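G., before I forget:
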Amino acid sequence: MSMTVVDTPGHGHHGHDPNQQHHFASMAQQFDSAKIGMWLFLATEILLFGGLFVGYGIMQGQHAEAFKSAHHHLDKRLGFLNTVVLLVSSWTMVMAVYSASVNKRKATVILLIITLLCAGTFMVVKYFEYSHKIHDGLLPGKYFSYKGPHLERERMFFSFYFMMTGLHGIHVLLGMVAISWLIFRANRGDFSSSWYTPVDLVGLYWHLVDLIWIYLFPLLYLIQ
Amino acid sequence: MSAHEHDHASSHGDHHGPKNPPRVFTAVLIALLILTFITVGASYVNFGSDSVNVVIALTIATIKASLVALFFMHLKYDKPVNALIAVSGFLFLGLFLLFPLIDFESRMDADDPAYQSKPAAIAPTAPAAPQH
């Protein structure tokens, strides 16, 4: 099986791309396999967050008044800001994947850096939201110590709020680690049109993080 | 057929995208931002009942999620197996939601005195007396 990679100078002396592992028949097969693996992981992520969404859905139905009252403590404007920030970061991410696939190294690095900055912005906004709630005692379950008028089950809303946004926030932080690693490797010139699998897979992960936020935002901030 | 796919894929790292990716991706971003504005705007409007508002918000969220999955996550241009995995994830999530919902909706409210099996505990006088 002859495989010549002409567009990567310095490579291609071994009869196949140096990024191709020997148990794969071709680069395309290797890329497809990696993608299937990533999608299987993402399916488990959907179900991981799914448990929280199902719990939220049922408890919101059971205690609609308390959840409605509790959500007024969230700032819609900050939630909206974070939604825009994450959507823009998804765009820069998909553009980075595209740039990597057409050998635009500099563009890839710059777009990944903007993605990282957006992720950082998201976490900073989250930090201000969290510290405001901690200050007011709007905390989960038994830690709820809000002094103002409230309904008993509002503490349950904040249990869901902190667990859902907290798990999502952990995913954003892990995404930032992964994107930083991509920036390092992209800058070193590891990626080309023949091999940019890590950029593509981290991109898929990042879009899932965005996709989950797309549901979290209306459910937590906008319930009327 | 497979030989053709192989040749094509090996030279381009299997990139089956739209004709002008930056343009398509930017259009998708603009659509996502507009939908975000709409969903925030809709949350200030009372459509008659709370559940109508929830349905509208979740419908918009699902449109946005589909745009992200189809274009940003390349599912529209990808091998169908990846879409199959994604969709089955959501189908199982639907099952996950369905069974607890059936359970909760068919359950009596334990706190409601009407369902208390021992009225004697609440009303010590004549347990057989009808309470109206």
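Residues 28-221 of chain A form a domain with the Four Helix Bundle (Hemerythrin (Met), subunit A) fold (CATH 1.20.120.80). The two ends of chain A are 62 Å apart (CA to CA).

More on Monday.
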